[in-house]
């Protein structure tokens, strides 16, 4: 018994472990990967690789895609100029849609699609499709590896036939050079050029203050102490096409404060019997100011909490607004109605580059 035990102890530990492959066919050699490397399938030439006429056909197809892209970009710009923004057309099955939006989307989509389709067709039919297996290397490349990468790059550039297929190269460059013009044209939709449009409103000397709710001209007695009223210029029709554009600049806020409580002398001089008229457009991002505190004479913008003191020239007390609300000088005409004595002394709403 002792001799058998000693013999068993001399067996290496790994020999004592059960073999998982026993009874399952041929055993695997120790230290070898049990999964064989399948390798790469043999390369098969495409018709373009052996027939130059087929390669030329593919070249012309790719060039056609890029040329259509260039024409679509030109069509995008032409559509932007040709179609008015309010033109509506019927397109089945979409129904009634804007002719401008439809044409812009169609032409820009076609331009981008043709660039992608041309690139894909080029890669599938003309560029080299030989698969190469390469061992992984450390992150820090050795000089030999860097040299190999550059050589591979040069080889890839050569196999892409960019230098040889000049028609493909030139039309691709043309398509890629023209398509960014679509974005340049879209910059025009950021709004009208400032010039004088942002500096002036519809208010002018003699324009009556019309109540936004009743559509009637306002008298001083219509503005009660501690209340807030809103007005628009006489002649601005709420149903007109340019109403939203004009009221966004001309919207007026009226408040009545005891003359003795008005701190700013100019505000007092521009008021009538304590009735003050200020722009309703917040000087931060243009939200309508409308929350009034009667006891403090403060008005609050609900968007970002900019607070203005109406008793002190509508100066900014709190929040991100950059300057006070512009005041409109008012008086009363011979019929007893409130009227403007001119336009706002400064541009209304948020700051802009040319504000000065």
How would you characterize the overall build of this protein?
The protein has ten helices and twelve strands. With 356 residues, the chain is an alpha+beta fold. It folds into two domains: 47-190, no CATH class; 209-355, Rieske Iron-sulfur Protein (3-layer Sandwich), CATH 2.102.10.10. The strands form four sheets. It has a four-stranded antiparallel β-sheet. A four-stranded antiparallel β-sheet has the order 7-8-9-10, with no helix packed on it. Strand 9 and strand 10 form a beta hairpin. The chain starts with a helix and ends in a 16-residue tail after the last strand.
Task: State the gist of this model.
The protein has 356 residues and is α+β, with helices and mostly antiparallel strands.
